[in-house]
Amino acid sequence: MKKFLGLCIFFLCASGSINAQLFFKATLKANREKVHRNLIQSTINQNLSTTLTDSTEENWQDAFYAMELLQYKSMWADGRIKAAAEQMHLQSVPFQRAALELLYANYPDTFYRQVKFLMMQTQDPKIFVMCGEYILQCKNSKNDLSFLAVKTEQWRQIYTDNALLAQLQMRILQQKNPLATPSIIPFLKKSYLPGKVLLFSFQRKNRNYPGIVMLRDRNGNFITDSNGMYFSVPQLARSINNLPGYITNGNTPEGIFRMKGYDVSRAVFIGPTVNIQLSMPYERTPKHFYNDSSISDTTWDINYYRNLLPQEWKSYNPIYQSYYAGKAGRTEIIVHGSTVNPMYYIKQPYYPLTPTQGCLTSKEVWDENTGIRTQSDQQLLINSMIKAGGADGYAIVINIDDEQRPVLLYDIVPMIEQAQQK
Predict the structure, then answer these.
(1) pLDDT, tens only, 307-355
(2) Helix ranges restricted to H, 180-333
(3) How do the domains of the chain map onto residue ranges?
(4) Rounded to 5 degrees, what are φ and ψ at 74?
(5) SS3 state at 28
(6) What is the rounded CA–CA span in Å between residue 245 and residue 321?
(7) Which CATH number fits domain 2-14+29-176: 1.25.40, 1.10.3470, 2.40.128, 1.20.1070?
(8) Per the confidence metrics, is the pTM higher than 0.90?
């Protein structure tokens, strides 16, 4: 990814306050057009023009990510990706990971045969799992459930404590016997995690549809706006590749995150609006995650995580995804705004929000003529977070159901009012 990151750094610019408005040079129309042109001409076309060898793998991986970002396809590029898919079983594990991300994102169902062949050849658990997830999203995945179940169990006999394999096995079981999602009302009660500031991100299981974010203060009250309405703004928990949340660069995992503090990013696609810092289990110490100074043990125990859940959710496996994502090595998921050109995704149900590599993102509008931020749901969230008592508590991502539409405030308010009745 070095060349791609170098391209991002080239267009990185300083932000500042102009009449209390944020300015970001990369959002100017000329700069966005230049980035788009360079991504296609250099990062995609030029890199894919090289012969795929050990020495050119990194060039191809840069092209893969750029194609995901832009959702780019062409007859010529499709042919080059087909050649890479046929050859990927001979390439390195990092190349295979990058290729599988692209195939999952841009070519679902297209390369079933090549992915299944790689699955049978690989000796790497993560590659096996990513192949399994690709097969699960194929049209005829039901025909492979028994095969996947047997193969995954065989791998688990070898890698008994592997979090990725455990999550894949759980998802296969869910395909066979879907779990009923418990009511979210227990999360909304004032008695749940008393004294903690809570950020709730209510999502659909299908992350193509945006969710909403709401805040609760230390007294258990949900934050309202100046009109007395419950505060909420749309929030996207979808990654560019749409892989499950337990896999690095996949969607935001469902589950509990420690929320602690603010920061300002220097990343070109995040921009200068203040973000909220999150961490998952294993990413920091148990003492930090559970905010308990009495914990001196650095060994993680899932029972501590389980104790943060309402009783009705303790046996619901999907809510543990953030725990297993952290155990599998996933890091650096935050709540942030966006300077990505939303026009890349104009045909998607989540437009004008923009996907990331797995963070929770809010809509921001940047004037392409001036580079000034003209609208920011992220800033509204930060203002409300300060009102709630600050970013020191927990963020909880919950898939409420599988309706094929965005989550709206009226989906949640009746349950809040029921939960908070005295």
Answers:
(1) 999 999 999 999 999 999 999 999 999 999 999 999 999 999 999 999 9
(2) 185-188, 286-289, 302-306, 321-327
(3) 2-14+29-176, 185-419
(4) -155, 160
(5) coil
(6) 7
(7) 1.25.40
(8) yes
